[in-house]
């Protein structure tokens, strides 16, 4: 079984994101970019499924600018076998990404598409669900456990206040949540090996998908600055401040 893993290049999660002066978006020039953390978890899970013998090939795919090649090389250093870059200058919205992925699914015929649950730059949490809808395939979102059982896959889902276990008929769409696994670091030899793995580039237009944005960003703003805290001398003083200043008790 083949697993397709979509990986997005986003601002590194350690970077303090700065809003552009005109409020039209966030500053990306000269900013460190990395693989979306949930996609690292998805790659790790695909590699573990292959190590267990449940998968035979892992194909990483990224939709974005030329530099997304670096993200794909990271996925291959972690264990993906090959990669596809769908080149576009636009930053595609989830529906366009889902349509591009549908075209690749039709071409590659993977048993599982294993995405991150959410990209940390736009926090959409939509692409996996849209892809499942477009393909009319079962979906297991927010996965914290994935077990292949013959022609189906059992997915444990993180839901409000507990866990839900669903059994999906393959082929299926899965999105990875935080507790699914802890991604490995790519070793130096594997980084070197990844340089030689195949990376195919396709223009988004060649897949017949219109990536033009449908949403208009009206304004992007910093959250309000928080006031500095104060040190209190005793529990009694804290209670007094909570009562008279914060007025919360
Ligand atoms: P989102 O719906 O934007 O929060 O993204 C959810 C997941 O879809 C991500 O974790 C990725 O696995 C995948 N995805 C979204 N955008 C892209 C992209 N441009 N390239 C590759 N994968 C993407």
From TrEMBL:
Keyword Acetylation in record: no
Pfam families attached to this UniProt entry: ETF
Highest taxon above the source species: Bacteria
InterPro entries documented for this protein: ET-Flavoprotein_bsu_CS, ETF_a/b_N, ETF_b, ETF_beta_N, Rossmann-like_a/b/a_fold, Sigma_54_int
Ranges in coiled-coil conformation: none
Keywords in alphabetical order: Electron transport, Transport
One annotated GO biological process: carboxylic acid catabolic process
Example of a GO MF term: electron transfer activity
Known cofactor(s): AMP
PANTHER family xref list: ELECTRON TRANSFER FLAVOPROTEIN BETA-SUBUNIT (PTHR21294), ELECTRON TRANSFER FLAVOPROTEIN SUBUNIT BETA (PTHR21294:SF8)
Function: The electron transfer flavoprotein serves as a specific electron acceptor for other dehydrogenases. It transfers the electrons to the main respiratory chain via ETF-ubiquinone oxidoreductase (ETF dehydrogenase).
Family indicated by similarity: Belongs to the ETF beta-subunit/FixA family.
Quaternary structure annotation from Swiss-Prot or TrEMBL: Heterodimer of an alpha and a beta subunit.
Protein name as it appears in the record: Electron transfer flavoprotein subunit beta
Originating organism: Ameyamaea chiangmaiensis
